[in-house]
Amino acid sequence: MKILLVNYRYFISGGPERYYFNIKEILEHNGHEVIPFSVKSMRNVPNDYEKYFLDIVDDEVYFAQSKKNLKIILKSFARMFYSFEAKKRFKCLLQNTKPDLVYIMQYHNKISPSIIDAAKSFNIPVIHRISDFQYMCPNALFYNDVTGVCEECLNGSKWNCVKNRCVLNSTVYSVIKLSAKILHDTLRISSKIDAFVVPSSFTLGKLVEYGIPKDKLNHIPTFFNLKEQNPEVEYTPFVLFVGRIEKQKGLMTLVKAFESTNYALKIIGFSNDGYEDEIKTYLAGKSHRIEFLGKKNFEEIVPYLKRCLCTVVPSEWYDNFPNVILESFAYKKAVIATNFGSLPELVKDKETGLTFAYQNVEDFRTKVKYMFDHIDKAKEMGENGFKAVLTSYSPQKHYEQLSSLLQSIKRK
Fold it and tell me: Pick from 56, 73, 51, 64: which is nearest to 110 by CA?
C-alpha cells in the first residue's frame, strides 16, 4: 500500500514526531511505501520529497517563541484558516505519487485543513490520528491558566474561549483561534475525514460527546519499540520527571510534594514561557533536593530512566497518552501519575504504578514515600509495566490494529 504520511514537523521535537518516525519505519518494514508531507525546516530529516513541502512560516517549534512580525502573522493566518498554497502543493504531490490513502498526524496551524479537501478531490481516503483536542477546543487543551481544566466549549458557547482568554492568555489570539475553528466547522472539515485513530479511551469518549460518529473512531494505543529486550536497570533513590515545564503538567504540585522532604527529584525538560523561572522562584530559600537538568534528547534521558526509582506524571490537564509512561515501563520503572484523564488507563494503581488525587499534594507525597519505603514493590510494579509494553503496547500489536483499519478504509 502507498501511504502519504502528514505531520507539520519532519524532525523530532516531541511525542507526536517520535510516533511519526516510528510508524513510518514500521510501515516500511512491512512492505508499504511511505511518502512524507510536511513543512520545510533546517532541522528536517533528509528525504526525497522536500520539494513538495510547504515553505516555512517560522522555524520556532512553539508559537509562543515566534517573533510574530507582520509577515509571519499573515502567513500563519493562511495556514491556520485555509491555505490555498498548501492545497495546491498537496494536490501536486497527490497527483505525482497517487497514494492509496492519507494518514495525518498534526496539521493545525502550520499546514492547513485545505489538504483534506485536496485529498477528497482525488477521492483518496483520509485518516487522522488525534493527539490533542483541536476539534473540540480552540485552545486544543481543554485547559487555561485561569480556571485550569475547562470544558466550557465542549457543550456550551465557543465564545467562552474568548471570555476566558484561553489561547496564550490573550483575547486577540483567542478570537483568532475561535474564528479559525468556526470556519473549519462551517466547512465541515472533521466530517470529511474517513476515520480517526485515538490513543486513549478517554479522548475517544470526549470525541463522542462532541458529536464525532463513534463508528469513525478507532481506539489504537500507541507503542514503544524496545531497543533492549532485557535492559539492565538500577533503582537509585531518586524520582524522575521528564516533560515540558508547563503549568498544566503539574509542576507546582510536583515540587510542593517534594519540598521539605529528603526525597531526591530530577527534572528533565524545558519551558518555553518562563514557567521554569516561576518554579525556581517558588523554591528559592526552601529546603529541597530538586535538581533541574534542562532539555535532553531521548538517548540522553535513557541513563536516567535506567537508574531512577520511579517516574512521575502529575499532569493537571487531559494528557493524551504521554509517551513517558511507556518509556518508563520499557526500563522497568513504575509511574506515579494523577488519577485523571487518560492516565489511569496506562498506570494501573498498585499494578504498574500508583495514582494520586488531582492536585492533592499530601496524597502525592504519600505515594512518593511508599515507593521509597517499598523498593521491592516499586521493582515489581516496574516489571509489570515492562510486561505491558511487551504485550499490550508492542509495535507488532499496534501495526496489526492500524493495518486492519488502513485496509478497511482503502476498500471503501
Answer: 56
